[in-house]
Specification:
single chain, mainly alpha, Arc Repressor Mutant, subunit A, three-stranded antiparallel sheet, 3 strands, 46% helix
Length: 89
């Protein structure tokens, strides 16, 4: 399997995300302290890579709807993402 490399912003979003239950977009915005536009870009990047999922299901999220959406880690990548975050320290 290919080794996962995360940027600082991606790590920040994943650290704020509860791996077992997920978080609402508003909570991620509050915990990461990123600008809303930047957070949406990072979330969309993680979703495109398959590392995150959104409920209700969508391919991408947008600035208008991400606050009310529920984000969670793709269970297929959970262990790999934890390992990638541990290697970063």
């Amino acid at each position: 399997m290919k080794q996962i490399k995360l940027s600082g912003r991606e790590r920040s979003v994943l650290r704020a995300l509860d791996f077992s239950t997920g978080n609402m977009g508003e909570e991620l915005l509050e915990h990461t302290r990123l600008q809303a536009e930047d957070l949406v870009d990072v979330i969309n990047g993680l979703m495109e890579a398959g590392f995150m999922e959104v409920a209700p299901y969508a391919e991408r999220t947008c600035l208008e709807s991400f606050r009310a959406a529920h984000f969670e880690v793709n269970p297929s990548y959970a262990l790999d993402l934890r390992g990638a975050m541990a290697r970063a320290w």
